[in-house]
Request: fold
Amino acid sequence: MSRTLREALRRLAPPVARRLALLLTAVALAGPLSSSALAQTPEVIPEVTPEAISEAAPDAPPCPPIEETAAAAGSQPPCAPAPEVSPSEEAPEPPHPPDGTLIGEVIIIPKGIFDPNEPGENKKIFRFADRLHRATRPKVIERQLLFKSGDAYSREAVEESERILRANRYLYDADIRPVRQEDGRVDLEVVTRDVWTLRAGASLNRAGGENSTNFSLEDSNFLGTGKDLTIWRISNVDRTSTLFRFRDPHLYGQHLQLEASYADYSDGGSRRFELERPFYSLDARWTAGFKSWSFDRVDSLYDRGEVFQKFDHGHDFLEIFGGLSPGLQDGATRRLRIGFTHQKDTFNYSPGGDSTPEPPQSRTLAYPWIGFDYIEDGFVVARDLDRIQRTEDLNLGRQFQSRIGWTSPSFGGDENQAIGSASFTAGWSP
Reply:
């Protein structure tokens, strides 16, 4: 076949080029036609379809590319056309390797908010939003995984890593899958997709002759770092408040959570500081932490919309705790916690209020405590349950939490009193 004809075939749409190649192949199989044969050929030539060639040569090898077929149509043996594959069909996901397989490369692919390959999402406004948005940094994803390159593969660790990632408010979904398995090693691909996290708002209301204003700015994934930054200012009939809050769920790249906030009120203020190493997974072996929170403000009592009593309310809370666990065993984890809590609430008359009724009585609780948790691994994956178009993780296993303490003047409390709490949950699926 001449070079000009090959170039023409290359420029044709794939379906047309395919039909021409099959037709040329059929002509080559039939051999050269004589002038008498041409004279006897009917005016309408039956269409040569891929099915017809497959029936004529059922055991024939797949056809080579169009250019090669057209170039050597007279010398090629009978061949069957390759099956057509719809562009929407994806290759099946590789099976999970057996536990204990060595993990090779861990490939992290953080995606933006919108996927241009999805129908309806390849629009200018969506592409512009993705350019404004700073995607989650790969290191932020890597720090939350329960495995790394060189570890032994564990299906449980992979599935729980997906749950940990999906628990973040700034991630729409997370998927971890094997992509290559060879020489006793498996490479894993971690794919995440972000949501829009920057939120800003302002409002102005008037009711009952009083104005209320609200301004807020919050980003739960500040510059793609996974850190939470909040600033807001609220003014209402009770008080005017300005708040600054910062939260880092992975301080210094470790499983340390830090939260610090400061609020200034027109009638007082608030301060909070928390540093905790939690039971970040079902197989985590220990926890420890420290929490401190205090505020002072003026609380008001109303009668038919009018303030008839005001009192100063001061609150101080301090707690230190730790805990141990043998990890995940027989499908469940058991955790023992111990700690000490000091909580003090003081109430005093405030200028501008009536002397009656009296303010609540001040109270101080100071107590050591012990707690026990039992959590079964009964997680299932659901979709569109509480959140539209979102993958959700539900634990249908039994969960039991309990805590008991004793406050006493010996520890700094007001009186001898037992303080406890307990909860039990179990899920069910039809």
